[in-house]
Design brief:
five-stranded parallel sheet, alpha/beta, Ribosomal Protein S8, Chain: A, domain 1, 20 strands, Rossmann fold, globular
């Protein structure tokens, strides 16, 4: 096998035989023999899934590759992979060894009734690999084009496109604009009677026409965000097996150990830049949902695109299905995940390691966001990977960025300074400690010694106030275990510590009782109360309760949305400390600059950028976050701030543009139909 142009015909194989054959360095005349010999070597090594990268716009090379594949025995199937800009690769599946008549591969003659690879545009009915090449790229034709959600335009295909791609008769005769399609989608959406029906409606739209889905979401972000993400995504995860229609994302299971890279190669898009991965152990405030947790990475990545403009083909949702300890799911005949107890210990770590290394190698250093891992794993995995790859944990760091931004805005209302705040957290898990860590970082940057900054943060967990005298504290709580009297409940802790800010991240509903909130109001003229647990049913208190019990003096935010509240003729708009304010912009910024790692400084910069987006008029109205309809603008500002930190700290791998913000905006995906002719 010739490894490079100019090598002798008997030279040993030098190309890495790992299932990816990159032909960028080869001429079409060299490709045929190389493909045959490479596939033969893959078969000998037991590699049955191969990606042949020929590049977009290299039609001659692609046709040569397909002509070679048509003559090779032992190929089960092959198909093109790419996006709207063209096909960049061909995915090949080899038949198992037992199904091949002879060992190795041999040349075969093409069926005279079957057209050559270069004649794909005229492939007769029945061939499932029909494509058409135009000046804009290579596209599937006929029903295949209508069934490809990243390319389908539905009734918006023009008359010329209908003729060119064999769509005549497959669509109603009227050509519709995207605006008309959005109108039709909204009319159908509003006819749904429950939030779960609305969620299913949105998923169905995404599965058939991704461009229209994102146009609809972006145009109606405030109305739709609670449906496609929290709180409704929590209900959808609980009923994942019942409402399942079509698979989306990748499931990497405990049974895939040793072949995770092979599983990742099955993903059809090559240019993956953002991965959201969960193991389903702590989904929102709902606990262990196993493989049902896949709804979270899917929903998160939808927000990466809708809120920040990350191209959908650059996104990869992943569920690490390591089993579940949820008895209800194990007994549910409709549960779609592994029916086994959770993988734990060294075997669990080995699977996560294999996944991270495979993703890092195959997709060239993507951002990997860990999502909804249990506390015992979330901190540990973050520490394990944060200095090795581009990664963050949204529960720990994303939440912290949003809350720090909310505190910055609250200080504009109260006139206070960050260094003067004392914060009490109900909940000693990943979110609470992550928020405390980031605020300590911000206090330290303002000149406060770290030890003093940490003493301004107190945790209450399920056993009571976290103090040094307690035994068997988890490692992540130790930095906030202070000298002091042990107090068993929140009310006594509020009375003793006298916090200026009360933050709920406990997952325990109605724990900010009237007595607790009134105590905060006695201590502070403008008490800052953040009830952040998701979904809404898990919130520590409702917005109406916080405003009523403080006579409208509370500065309130929640994790899931609450409607506006009117008290004494005054209207209050609750803030929503939604992580969607921060994580999409962080991801976009990391992708734009090619960040090697993501530091705590990145989230401090993101928080400052978010707070700057709240206008003086909004502050006067008591708003601590900008309206959700401004999220794409906000995400661009955050992305520019993130990239600025990466360039300043020499963490970026891509050349620095002259105008960072303008460059970021130019990279944002806009869901408008493009002509394929």
């Amino acid at each position: 096998m010739r490894s490079r142009r100019g090598d002798g015909p008997n030279d040993p194989v030098r190309l890495p035989v790992d299932g990816i054959l990159d032909l960028h360095a080869f001429r079409p005349s060299e490709a045929g023999d190389l493909v045959r010999e490479y596939l033969e070597e893959c078969r000998r090594r037991g590699i049955l899934e191969i990606r042949i990268v020929h590049g977009k716009g290299r039609g001659a090379l692609r046709r040569t590759v397909h002509a070679a594949l048509d003559r090779i025995e032992g190929i089960e199937r092959y198909r093109l992979a790419g996006d709207a800009s063209g096909w960049g690769a061909t995915l090949v599946t080899l038949e198992p060894a037992g199904r091949v008549a002879e060992a190795g591969m041999k040349q075969r003659t093409r069926d005279p009734g079957r057209p050559a690879a270069g004649e794909r545009e005229n492939t007769p009915m029945g061939d499932d690999r029909k494509t058409k090449t135009t000046a804009k790229g290579t596209f599937p034709t006929g029903a295949d084009l209508l069934h490809e959600p990243t390319l389908n335009k539905g009734t918006a295909f023009t008359e010329a496109e209908r003729d060119a791609f064999g769509l005549r008769g497959l669509l109603p005769p009227r050509v519709c604009t995207q605006d008309v399609q959005v109108q039709r989608v909204m009319q159908n959406y509003r006819q749904k009677s429950t939030d779960l029906e609305r969620f299913i409606h949105m998923v169905s739209l995404q599965d058939r026409n991704e461009t229209l889905f994102y146009r609809f979401v972006i145009d109606n972000l405030e109305e739709l965000m609670p449906i496609i993400y929290t709180p409704v995504v929590g209900l959808a995860c609980q009923q994942f097996g019942q409402i399942f229609r079509r698979s989306r994302g990748l499931f990497v299971t405990a049974e895939d150990r040793g072949r995770v890279k092979q599983v990742l190669r099955n993903w059809p898009h090559q240019d993956v830049r953002v991965i959201v991965v969960t193991d389903g152990q702590r989904i929102l405030g709902l606990g262990d949902l196993g493989a049902n947790g896949m709804g979270i990475p899917i929903g998160k990545l939808s927000l990466y695109t809708a809120c920040a403009g990350v191209h959908p083909n650059h996104n990869l949702p992943v569920c690490l299905d390591v089993g579940t300890n949820n008895e209800r799911l194990l007994d549910d005949p409709l549960y779609l995940g592994l029916r086994r107890r959770r993988l734990e210990g060294p075997d669990y770590d080995a699977l996560v390691d294999e996944f991270v290394e495979a993703a890092h190698d195959l997709f060239h250093h993507p951002l990997i966001q860990f999502e909804d891992f249990a506390n015992q794993n979330s901190f540990r995995l973050l520490q394990r990977y944060r200095d090795r790859i581009c990664t963050f944990n949204d529960d720990i760091q994303g939440t912290a960025g949003v809350i720090l931004a909310g505190i910055y805005s609250a200080m504009r209302i109260t006139g206070g300074k960050l260094k003067d705040q004392k914060v009490l957290y109900l909940g000693g898990g990943s979110a609470g400690v992550g928020i405390a860590d980031l605020i300590v970082t911000a206090m330290r940057e303002e000149g406060m010694p770290e030890a003093e900054a940490r003493r301004r943060h107190w945790l209450i967990d399920s056993k009571g106030l976290v103090v040094k005298s307690r035994d068997n504290l988890q490692a992540h709580k130790l930095a906030y275990a202070h000298e002091g009297e042990f107090l068993p409940d929140l009310l006594s802790a509020v009375g003793k510590i006298k916090p200026t800010i009360l933050i709920g991240v406990s997952g325990q509903p109605r724990t900010f009782t009237r007595e607790v909130v009134e105590a905060m109001a006695r201590i502070n003229d403008r008490p800052v109360i953040f009830a952040l647990s998701n979904p809404t049913s898990k919130s520590e208190c409702a917005a109406e309760e916080a405003y009523t019990w403080t006579s409208g003096r509370a500065i309130f935010a929640s994790g899931s949305p609450f409607p506006p509240v009117t008290i004494g003729g005054k209207r209050f708009v609750p803030g929503q400390g939604n992580n969607a304010y921060v994580f999409p912009g962080v991801g976009l910024g990391a992708a734009v600059c090619g960040a090697r790692t993501i530091t705590g400084e990145v989230f401090a910069a993101a928080a400052e950028a978010l707070a700057r987006e709240v206008t003086p008029t909004e502050i006067e109205l008591g708003c601590i976050y900008p309206p959700l309809k401004k999220l794409r603008q906000v995400s661009a500002a955050i992305a520019a701030a993130v990239a600025e930190v990466a360039y300043r700290r020499d963490l970026a791998t891509r050349p620095r543009p002259g105008d960072l913000l303008a460059h970021v905006r130019s990279q944002q995906y806009e869901p408008a139909y493009q002509s394929y002719l």
